[in-house]
């Protein structure tokens, strides 16, 4: 019995930029959410910020708020003579349950430094210092930092931004398309050495733990697939690319996170990536009394199930 069906929009590009797979309407405008972080990191490097490889990886992260994530975020701020009070992102507890429990046992509550976007915000603050822009108001869409980042995002996606909203962390959130997002990741992953794009890709590859954290599919998938850069976002968005320019992006229409690992595994296979070891991260069980009684399956590719004649 099929209990639920998730629909969405997806595009996978081959190394020449042609469609290897297209589902739904990849030209539809979406909010890419945290999938924009690697693009924003490119913009910050171009604006002159100085970051270590670890700090650059964390600037691209939606991290768990584990000890190392917080340490690196604080290190970015300390490098420009500031502390966590400079952060303007939304206070939250760590995403990781163990980290959140330990944080609360220490008498702490929701704070900007433990929110999953604190690496990006710390890097934004450091960029303002490096460029000589005011730190105060750095989230305003009219702030020079945000005007610069919006322009870089438009350049990398090659898509006109029809809308600019506010992301969950308080930063401006421009719309783009699934195709534009895949193209941007392809440009970053295949960029020439010495470019800001190449630096971002190499940082993500070097530190997949900092990009997400313990038990997260982005971290586990990047550890399993050599050269892959990958970034998930809220409301069912995911994007990634390989060093030869093969790329993918998709948006789950109902905003659910549940199907993302399943879709990611299936589309990587469509791009010719075959597991050399078990991809445990792509399996999403349906539980009954704490035990697997079903599974989430892709609607395309070798693992697809037929749903009443619709695959």
From TrEMBL:
Domain of life the protein comes from: Bacteria
InterPro entries: Asparaginase_II (IPR010349)
Organism of this sequence: Ruania alkalisoli
Pfam families noted in UniProt: Asparaginase_II (PF06089)
Protein's name according to its UniProt entry: Asparaginase
